[in-house]
Amino acid sequence: MSPRQIEVSEPREIGITELVLRDGHQSLLATRMAMEDMVGACADIDAAGYWSVECWGGATYDSCIRFLNEDPWERLRTFRKLLPNSRLQMLLRGQNLLGYRHYEDEVVDRFVDKSAEAGMDVFRVFDAMNDPRNLEHAMAAVKKVGKHAQGTICYTISPVHTVEGYVKLAGELLDMGADSIALKDMAALLKPQPAYDIVKAVKDTYGDVQINVHCHSTTGVTQVSLMKAIEAGADVVDASVSSMSLGPGHNPTESVVEMLEGTGYTTKIDMARVYKVRDHFKKIRPKYAEFESKTLVDTKIFDSQIPGGMLSNMESQLRAQGAADRTDEVMAMVPICRKDAGYPPLVTPSSQIVGTQAVFNVLMGEYKVMTGEFADMMLGYYGASPAPRNPEVIALAAEQAKKEPITVRPADLLAPEWDSLVEQASALPGYDGTEEDVLTFALFPGVAPTFFEHRKEGPKSVARTEAQMKAAAEGQANALSGPITYNVTVNGASHTVSVEPA
Amino acid sequence: MSPRQIEVSEPREIGITELVLRDGHQSLLATRMAMEDMVGACADIDAAGYWSVECWGGATYDSCIRFLNEDPWERLRTFRKLLPNSRLQMLLRGQNLLGYRHYEDEVVDRFVDKSAEAGMDVFRVFDAMNDPRNLEHAMAAVKKVGKHAQGTICYTISPVHTVEGYVKLAGELLDMGADSIALKDMAALLKPQPAYDIVKAVKDTYGDVQINVHCHSTTGVTQVSLMKAIEAGADVVDASVSSMSLGPGHNPTESVVEMLEGTGYTTKIDMARVYKVRDHFKKIRPKYAEFESKTLVDTKIFDSQIPGGMLSNMESQLRAQGAADRTDEVMAMVPICRKDAGYPPLVTPSSQIVGTQAVFNVLMGEYKVMTGEFADMMLGYYGASPAPRNPEVIALAAEQAKKEPITVRPADLLAPEWDSLVEQASALPGYDGTEEDVLTFALFPGVAPTFFEHRKEGPKSVARTEAQMKAAAEGQANALSGPITYNVTVNGASHTVSVEPA
After folding, report:
1. pTM: predicted TM-score of the whole model, two decimal places
2. What ipTM goes with this model?
3. DSSP state, residue A415
4. pLDDT of A294-341, one tens digit each?
5. Which of A64, A464, B225, B360 could form a disulfide with A72 if both were Cys (CB 3.0 to 4.6 A apart)?
6. Domains of chain A
7. Do the chains contact at B275 and A300, CB–CB below 8 Å?
8. B191 with A220: Cβ contact below 8 A
9. Which of B221, B227, B269, B491 to mutate to test the interface with A (most CBs of A within 10 A)?
10. Are A94 and A127 in contact (CB under 8 A)?
11. Mind telling me which InterPro entries this protein's record contains (chains A, B) (predicted)?
12. DSSP 3-state assignment of B344?
């Protein structure tokens, strides 16, 4: 019997993971926030009393080198320095690491090693297919370096997903030595009752294992789900400071703290610090307005199961093909493709793979053209699916991709690749000779060369400047800061005229 | 024992009051929505299966005649026609009706009579001081015309506000014949635990009385409060369709419906209809962007107890005095004034009265100049306060206002006034001879004359036009899509100039 069942009069302490430095801006501002806009909040974040501070992994690595000319390893080391009292947390896509393919085990080991060395404490490890074999090597690597290995259940809804299934998966994660279990609701699909049922069943089955619950807020129900998860025994919940919350983001940190007042639960959060963090990001957020999602609440996700990010992705694909009017057809196609693929959760990269195939099916006919990734998914190269896949589509995939279906762990088919990666990276101008650079090349071979070449130029923020913010606020017509050139026709004669403020 | 305690296997049905036609746009768009922007949603609202549709009262009457040149009684009759299957609901400030002073009982009777005649079904009656004597005549008037009299508890936080106090107030409302009890959380202060405790205690004390719970969403905790209120036995909860929700508004209707799935509670809401309502207001809302509040989440309200609307009001008063930098002092002064006044809830009109006095105290010294309204509040002319008022400030109020403190029901001091109101209204150009016009004059004597005079010109929307929306979307300077022709005079000579992007 756990202490909480005896001392009912003592409120149980709930931990909070602050997300603003990673998933907060990833979900709200397309991961575009520059390090310079985060450093000012770190002292207060560090002192606020969070269970952990998520600040790395997910899409941040990609964004650092693709958009911001920042070295992601430098970013991690900076966070380590600025957050000396905090557990740093990252999101790791199991055998995919932070890339979009499976890596051979040695690459996984080296990545985890270097991340721990640079200061990472808590590794939240997940797999888009919920295939435990895709997590086990990364989990073992984390254990080996003595860090916190958090095994993740990706929550989704389908005819084959049940509370019992999630409990079984939790058991498999615990068998790997998971120090805690994360229930990850990346699409805001987790309603209060299943939140309660899953957490309760995991606790009832495995005793007092630590459970962390991660919800997005898009459907407007998940603040309640966090409450019910806590009532069922959850130990830590994720939140993002209010000025970087809601919509496709997360529930507000302050609101999570406040909702517990007077209940049998409490937090040790220093709200004065949180308000400083809030005020910091309140000023920063408008600088990234152009990257901001417009969605605030959308419960239609419950029907379509299409996360917001995936939807906007599909819409831009359709627009590019001049088929913007076919969104509804694609939305109806997604559940079909997902069923054929054995009901994978929709999360990076499965969401993109299923979404793109749905677009192809609508534009070119059902499975007339299969993407390489979707064929791979059908053939088992992303791992086992929650339910059996459609045999007819498997056959088509084999035919189009000229590959055989597999049932082994996908990474078992990979030959050692580290030496080759070192060799390739070494040939790139700007490569600095570190394992970190080899990993950057391994994860993003298309982007790394340009990044290495231009790294010396230093971080390049994509935020609006002070002057641009001011100009935007003042309106445009009267905010000419430099000359604008017009073709002006006067009495039938054309002139090139340059206009600027007098 | 109520049926729900026996049949635990059958989900208990929860009703929803849809707020979008009144408090939704009042809270988000400063009550500026024109009737023409609501009619298109009515058929779907009417068929969605709500317990009631709030569509009148509060600030809408004032806004109709002050800003929109709409006759509020016409608006009510139109809603009655367009929502034939719905219970129409209004918010009524007890003896204040929809104005800002106390009215003599006959005026209250006539107002309720005419509202019922025009189609009102459910009267949510409240008093800003929670003084039952200020509600009892209005409640009796509603009972007399055979309509639903909903007695209201205004929820607030103070050292003297307790669950027991709210239960006692509920009992006094039931003694007046209340058909239901509303727990009204106008400032989003109601946390989950007190929501549960109050609803539970009222049910435990008085049996199965219907309880409606109304929360704003500003603090980000009240969706959870609605859940806990439902678990405690609440029967109806208020919500506003998602495209007109959150921030200083309310929890999203769709999210309230969805959060109950799989629990012991259910609704009979037709989501297909709700989505049509959502899509309707998604298009309408941007037309009123200039009136929109910027606040999305603010938990600081828990400390200051200053509702968002009150804060922006105080800030604009300070700006007008060139003292915008003194907001913090005023925010610290509000709790002092509120304590001196005996801890009234802060809601129209008490929020404005306390807020304005706080501004005066900061600018001119503590109680050096008292507003007439604050002096009246100190002297009992708004009713009894929850706690004793500060005797020193009462003495100052008596001195400055040259009035004696009272302990009777304020309206008891009023002489019959209906005949005089008729006489005054009759003298106004444009007065149409109806009791409705007399009531309009009684409620807003300063605005009614202009409205009567211009009523014939018909409704005047303050929304952006289609063209303005388009121009705003395209941006200004660089939104020249075709040549624009100007007449330009240079050094006295006129030229026809055509300009287009180079």
Report:
1. 0.92
2. 0.90
3. P
4. 889 999 889 878 776 777 778 888 888 899 899 889 989 999 999 999
5. A64
6. 8-291 (3.20.20.70), 301-411 (1.10.472.90), 466-499 (no CATH)
7. yes
8. no
9. B221
10. yes
11. Aldolase_TIM, Carboxylase_cons_dom, PCB-like, PYR_CT
12. coil
